[in-house]
Amino acid sequence: MSAHLFVASLYDALMVPADKLGFEQVRRMVTRNAKGKVLEIGAGTGLNFKHFDGADCVFATEPDPYMLSHAASRLRDCSALTRAIAEELPFPDESFDTVVSTLTFCTIGDPLKAAEEVKRVLKPDGCFYFAEHPIAEKRILAKAEKIATPVWKILAGGCHLDRDILSYFKSAGLIISEIIRLDSFFVAGKAAKSQAYAKPGLAA
Ligand SMILES: C[S@@+](CC[C@H](N)C(=O)[O-])C[C@H]1O[C@@H](n2cnc3c(N)ncnc32)[C@H](O)[C@@H]1O
Questions:
Q1: Are 39 and 97 in contact (CB under 8 A)?
Q2: What is the distance in A from the centroid of ligand 1 to the CA of 192?
Q3: CA of 157 to the centre of ligand 1 (A)
Q4: CA 114 to centroid of ligand 1, rounded, Å
Q5: Which tens digits make up the pLDDT trace of 143-195?
Q6: Spacing, Cα 100 to ligand 1 middle (Å)
Q7: Is the shortest distance between the CB of 87 and ligand 1 below 6 Å?
Q8: Is the pTM above the cut of 0.90?
Q9: Which of 99, 164, 174, 180 could form a disulfide with 169 if both were Cys (CB 3.0 to 4.6 A apart)?
């Protein structure tokens, strides 16, 4: 994974319009469900940190050193930041109550391996909350996303517009219990590693 000084410097400013248009609410929806010992993967500049009110402690990972330095300035009490890719999480099996990812699976080099890692580090009754932008359902939008991705990837720090992100979660064995389509671009959702804990509750 390469480091992106330019993207990291502009990231917060670029997120202002998205957050104003409703993504801030999505961040809140996903993070307010985060309970107990929480892991956030690909934390970027740490825009989610201020929302983790229900967590006992938050472990955040981020591989890009430039993103990491912004995130470090947002760390709160009882939180820790580690440089790591989501494909190789430096944590033992079954060590987290909650794993959170927002806008990260579009960029991860091997998203299936990362989804397997999410499953590995979740406790048996743990939950995975996510907000991502999978490839559009509408065929014409999906086609536009496929065409735009080679250029977009270069401009946006490796972000793919055309990934079938939910299929990686399913292939890794995560059971998706809830999907909220926010618009034709973003989805938020909840998954668990066993059917017994795969219950809706994201929007509750
Ligand atoms: C679009 S940003 C999202 C940042 C943050 N999650 C947010 O919601 O603002 C994508 C993030 O994924 C990180 N990333 C890239 N490759 C990754 C990998 N292999 N594992 C984990 N994170 C990765 C990038 O460095 C970047 O911080």
A1: no
A2: 21
A3: 9
A4: 12
A5: 999 999 999 999 988 999 999 999 999 999 999 999 998 877 889 999 998 77
A6: 12
A7: yes
A8: yes
A9: 174
Instruction: State if residue 62 touches ligand 1 by the CB under 6 angstroms criterion.
Output: yes
Q: Are strands 122-132 and 175-181 parallel, antiparallel or unpaired?
A: unpaired
List the residue whose alpha carbon is closest to atom 16 of ligand 1. Answer: 108
The pLDDT value given to residue 63:
96
Q: Is 108 in the pocket of ligand 1 (CB under 6 A)?
A: yes
Please give the pLDDT value at position 1: 62
Q: State in Å: Cα 108 to ligand 1 middle.
A: 7
Delimit the domains of the chain by residue range: 5-197
Has residue 197 got a pLDDT over 80? no
User: 19: which 2 tokens?
Assistant: 């957050």
CATH class of the 5-197 domain in this structure: alpha beta
Rounded to an integer, what distance in angstroms lies between the CA atom of residue 179 and that of residue 191?
A: 9
